[in-house]
Amino acid sequence: MTSRTSTTSSFLECERKSLDRMKRFQLPNSFKKIGIGLAMFSFVLLFTNAFLWEMIELKWMAKYGLLGGMLLISISKDEIEDELIAKLRMQSYTFAFIAVVLFTLAQPFINYLVDFMVQDGEAVFKDMGDFQILWFLLSVQVFYFLYLKKLYR
Amino acid sequence: MKNRLKIERAILDLTQEDLAKKIGVSRQTINSIEKNRYVPSTLLALKLSAIFRKTVNELFELEEED
ipTM of this predicted complex? Predict the structure, then answer.
């Protein structure tokens, strides 16, 4: 009985340690600049493609580039990553999570209502796409984090 | 929570930047603690107490609403 309890507690301890290591996972600060560059390039590419070439492959690449760039910005460390920054980062993730859930729930209804009013009662209920949700999640987190840092400056 | 960080820093003639470097945080963190916008962790409070050679209770004081 005692040996089973000790095996369980050592397993839980091991699990806790590996989860703690994952919690601390962040990229070095230099990745932030790479992320900004990639996101800006992809953003310009997305708009240029929409107006000039209208290539589906390019649109797909630009969307992935934009999300990848935003993710790099989101998970790379600040120049000095101390406990205040960690607290603000956590606050921004919490805010972004709640905002995205609310936005995802509300957006289809808003779209439906707008369509209903504009198209004389001929509206179709549409869900949000993966890209829209992820883009909103990452931008809310990144910009809210910047806003919080400005408040604590 | 009130704190005497600014006073103790003035006694040792340290800037926010100097103190921040000594304990490995940003100047903004020191500024936020001094202005009571941020309550530091026990670890940071102990580091500050070591720098100023004061106990944590001498540096930080609870207020009515805490």
Answer: 0.87
